[in-house]
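Why should sequence recovery work at all? Because a backbone constrains its sequence more than one might expect. Tight turns favour small or flexible residues, buried strands favour hydrophobic ones, and helices have their own preferences. The token representation captures these environments compactly. In the example below, the structure is given first.
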């Protein structure tokens, strides 16, 4: 980490109005970024803009940044990953201020984010959970058929929310004797990868599209069914609401008792691959990850689960010595 500057030298006093104005300029400078990246930075930095006038003594010093980090951890009670995201947005904002001559140096460079967790923080779904979830999705109407197809794509193909949102009608096609779907993942500017669709996913998609009726190739594959937004592309919030509704109906999501989220479905897809003998490279390719590091976590989790099960089996069959008090 670079040497910290003298806190008495590098400090700048800005009014809340000036910070708000620079915030708007920073967001406007992100035109070349993807809409998702731009939205993430804007949402994360908006917290700093709200906190800034309440703090009252922020002068863009290293100690000030550390105080903001403590606020995120203790008052906002954000997760380690979220704190890192908020600090990354703040650093990018300070880079913008340096380029525009407002700051001489970026104080955020001297305050690190939290370390990445060694294991995934969200719970996985057991095979029984998966069965309960799929059985709980009502398929008597168009919305239910759509929800069922989306959930299957998350469970069977490890599709993320953003990949579902970006999908168009023309992205599902037949080639080489099977059905495929083009996907555009997080941080990608084009649909440069494809995913093979298992038979049960194909069947669910066909039922949904048949009920939906004719549509142009450029229309969203998963359209909103709400009265005011009918036919429009679904949003991240819309998909999460629908998945959470079905998780709750299935009894899988139980408030604070189990930390199950829509992203748990993608985790579950990876874990099922590991359970079926997939390698880290195969999981990385299937989930469209940047490296094998995340894929290795799934293999480690599955290996640990197997070791625990073997221990239980040995105890049940008397293979392990019984310790007496």
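From this structural description, the recovered sequence reads:
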């Amino acid at each position: 980490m670079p040497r910290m500057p003298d806190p008495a030298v590098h400090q700048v006093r800005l009014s809340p109005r000036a910070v708000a104005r620079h915030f708007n300029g920073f967001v406007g400078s992100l035109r070349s970024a993807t809409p998702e990246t731009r939205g993430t930075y804007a949402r994360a930095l908006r917290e700093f803009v709200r906190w800034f006038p309440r703090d009252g003594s922020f002068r863009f010093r290293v100690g000030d940044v550390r105080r903001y980090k403590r606020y995120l951890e203790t008052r906002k009670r954000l997760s380690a990953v979220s704190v890192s995201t908020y600090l990354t947005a703040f650093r990018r904002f300070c880079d913008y201020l340096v380029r525009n001559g407002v700051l001489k140096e970026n104080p955020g460079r001297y305050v690190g984010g939290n370390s990445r967790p060694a294991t995934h923080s969200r719970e996985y779904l057991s095979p029984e959970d998966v069965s309960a979830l799929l059985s709980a999705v009502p398929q008597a109407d168009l919305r239910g058929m759509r929800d069922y197809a989306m959930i299957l794509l998350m469970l069977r193909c490890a599709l993320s929310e953003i990949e579902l949102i970006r999908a168009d009608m023309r992205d599902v096609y037949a080639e080489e004797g099977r059905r495929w779907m083009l996907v555009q993942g997080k941080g990608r500017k084009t649909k440069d990868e494809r995913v093979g669709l298992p038979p049960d996913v194909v069947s669910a998609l066909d039922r949904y599209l048949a009920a939906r009726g004719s549509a142009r190739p450029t229309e969203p594959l998963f359209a909103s069914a709400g009265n005011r937004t009918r036919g429009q592309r679904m949003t991240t919030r819309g998909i999460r609401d629908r998945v959470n509704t079905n998780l709750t109906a299935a009894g899988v999501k139980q408030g604070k008792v189990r930390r199950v989220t829509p992203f748990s479905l993608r985790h579950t897809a990876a874990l099922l691959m590991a359970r079926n003998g997939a390698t880290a490279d195969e999981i990385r390719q299937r989930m469209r990850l940047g490296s094998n590091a995340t894929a290795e976590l799934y293999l480690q989790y599955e290996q640990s689960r197997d070791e625990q099960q073997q221990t239980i089996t040995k105890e049940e069959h008397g293979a392990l010595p019984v310790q007496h008090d």
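A few observations help interpret the result. The radius of gyration is 24 Å.
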